[in-house]
Design brief:
The protein is α/β, with parallel strands linked by helices and 606 residues long. It folds into 2 domains: 287 residues, no CATH class; 152 residues, 3-Layer(bba) Sandwich (Glucose Oxidase, domain 1). It contains 22 helices and 16 strands. The strands form 4 sheets. It has an 8-stranded mixed sheet. Strands 2-1-3-4 form a 4-stranded parallel sheet, with helices on both faces. α7 links the parallel β3 and β4. α6 runs parallel beside α7 and α8 runs antiparallel to α9. It starts with a helix and ends in a 16-residue tail after the last helix.
């Protein structure tokens, strides 16, 4: 193992020992009682299989056959989740072929940040993760099941499914992806058109036409945002079948992978002699593997929140220093938009996740000694699925990248580090992703332009008030203020300013996006403004230094004077009512800090 990867892993193991041991003890106790439906009363059990076919009832009366829970985030509005409409029938058929039963245990919400970006609904987005976790727990709470198949892809959905399923971590679980849509309008062209629209050089009809050519069919968006980062990280953790992440939907290979995933998770169940559950597979080493995969691919900044929360659900404590230390030594091996020109389909064609895993194992950056859904050892994930006369087979990943400008090697990386840095200073603590930022923009020292609402920025841009070097402060965007929305709507305006030759950066206690790009953005800053964080005391014209090289985020001012300033206290009530936001007040009040995962479950201040 690389010395730094080994050191970070050992530190996480030591830090997590009490909470991890407590978690595993709880799972051991629950496992000893399974299959849980054996403890149900006759009335309980009769309710549990009342709607089943008689053959399934006869099977479920026995305790030596598996009952598979299907938990799905299907809805037909989300392109990524639309393919899941047909999965339950495929899964039931495959389960029957194993002599087992599959029941649709429950559905979870699945919202799209692409639809809600810049809209009030985005203020429910982060909290939908913990809502999905609770929905998953409700689905599994009937104690009818021996294994779980999780159907979900996008931003908060995979983390929510994992957090919920880890409460039932004595059960084996497998995640089944649906894959990305075929490539449409190139992402770089989409970005160009968005910036022209922001400048008023194109109309809405032209913009909608371009967007529709980008997002044009069933499947995930093809850029390397949070959804596709989810898929890559889950595969590197050994919770998918090998090579499953980026096979397009609606193909024979995709359907065969779904059948094979069903059969495999049933093999892992206790009635089939299995002993390992999800909680055994999500351990400290698999979490570190996920972080390494995130960093070497320049993945979504949202995972500095989500994987903290997933780890805590398994009793594992990680923090941003772990990310930063790993990022300082892992190589940057991919160029997928927004960190490059091509999309995830090109990455998959280049060799994809199996090629990446083999390179990282050979370089000592990934732990091989982990349990996965297909057995012990991550080297099992260096294979690519194919159909051979209709049969599913796995072949070794290609020896060389088929697109070396998209997927490189450990020995010839695109950059020597992972491009994620922690920022600390008298304005708080946050993170910045610089893998798509030009080196000359790593450090910005410029006057602040302060906004308490993201919509104020567009008005200032249209009025020409931002045509200057500036650090844009968008505050009162933290989880307790308004649910910590993504601020991706700001990207075209800030990109235009940078293209005009101005030195421009963003500092916010909100999120940016899985598609964070060329403008340096200090995000997830805490303490958030609502909690008395320093951002609440910044004024227009204050000199701000954002330095990604040194990891600094500071206001250049007299410390005593700055500390005595009266913090801004805008009326936030308009963010707390309407569009369902009034139902989430308790979540806003209970949310932890961003470095704790911004979760309502593990808030150390509560």
């Amino acid at each position: 193992m690389h010395a730094v990867v080994d050191r970070v892993t050992r530190r996480i193991i030591d830090r997590s020992r009490p909470s991890r041991q407590n978690y595993l003890a709880r799972m051991t106790e629950l496992k000893s009682q399974s299959p849980h439906r054996n403890s149900l009363s006759c009335g309980n059990l009769a309710h549990g299989f009342a709607a089943c076919h008689q053959d399934d009832k006869n099977t479920l009366k026995l305790m030596n056959k598996a009952n598979l829970a299907i938990v799905s985030a299907y809805n037909d509005m989300l392109s990524a989740h639309n393919p899941y409409a047909t999965y339950p029938d495929i899964i039931r058929e495959a389960a029957h072929g194993m002599g087992s039963v599959a029941q649709f245990a429950g559905g979870t919400p699945a919202m799209c940040d692409g639809v809600t970006q810049g809209q009030p609904g985005m203020e429910l987005s982060l909290f939908s993760r913990d809502t999905i976790a609770m929905s998953t727990a409700v689905a599994l709470s009937h104690n009818m099941f021996d294994a779980t198949v999780l159907l979900g892809i996008c931003d908060k959905i995979v983390p929510g499914l994992l957090i919920g399923a880890l409460s039932f971590g004595y059960l084996p679980s497998i995640l089944v992806p649906a894959g990305p849509m075929p490539s449409g309008l190139p992402n770089k062209e989409k970005q160009r058109i968005r910036q022209l629209y922001a400048e008023g050089k194109l109309g809405k009809d032209e913009l909608l036409e371009a967007e529709s050519k980008s997002y044009h069919s069933a499947g995930t968006c093809t850029f390397y945002g949070t959804a596709n980062s989810n898929q890559l990280l889950v595969e590197v953790m050994g919770l998918h079948l090998p090579g499953a992440a980026f096979v397009n939907p609606g193909t024979p290979l995709r359907d065969q992978l779904t059948r094979a995933a069903t059969e495999q998770v049933i093999r892992l169940s206790r009635p089939q002699g299995g002993e390992l559950g999800l909680g055994d597979m999500v351990d400290e080493k698999s979490i570190v593997n996920a972080l390494v995969a995130l960093l070497v691919t320049g993945g979504s900044t949202n995972h500095t929140l989500h994987w903290v929360a997933i780890a805590r659900a398994a009793g594992i404590i990680i923090d941003w220093n772990d990310y930063a230390e790993l990022s300082s030594v892992v190589p940057s091996m991919t160029r997928i938009y927004p960190n490059g020109e091509e999309d995830v389909n090109a990455f998959h064609e280049a060799g994809g996740t199996p090629f990446l895993i083999r390179e990282l194992l050979d370089g000592g950056y990934l732990h091989n000694d982990v349990e996965t859904v297909v057995g012990y050892g991550l080297e099992r994930y260096t294979r690519t699925p194919e159909l051979d006369g209709g049969a599913l087979v796995w072949q070794p990943a290609p020896e060389k990248s088929r697109h070396p400008d998209v997927l490189s090697t450990v020995s010839e990386p695109f950059a020597p580090d992972g491009g994620l840095k922690v920022l600390d200073g008298n304005l708080g603590r946050g993170v910045i992703k610089v893998s798509a930022v030009a080196r000359e923009h790593y450090r910005i020292e410029a006057p602040a332009v302060v906004f308490n609402d993201q919509n104020e920025l567009k008005a200032a841009f249209d009025a020409g008030e931002l045509n200057k070097d500036c650090v844009v402060i968008v505050r009162f965007q933290g989880p307790r203020s308004n649910g910590m929305p993504e601020l991706h709507k700001l990207t075209p305006y800030l990109g235009v300013l940078q293209d005009r030759g101005f030195s421009v950066g963003l500092v916010t206690d909100g999120r940016m996006s899985g598609a964070s790009g060329k403008v340096p953005a200090a995000i997830h800053v805490y303490p958030e403004a609502l909690n008395g964080g320093p951002l609440a005391r910044v004024r227009d014209g204050d000199l701000i230094c954002l330095d990604a090289e040194k990891g600094a985020l500071s206001i250049i001012a007299d410390e005593a004077d700055f500390a005595q300033r009266e913090p801004a206290s805008p009326d936030l009530s308009r963010y707390h009512q309407g569009y369902g936001r009034e139902l989430f007040g308790w979540m806003r009040r209970a949310a932890g800090t961003s470095e704790e995962g911004a979760s309502v479950f593990w808030n150390h201040e509560a």
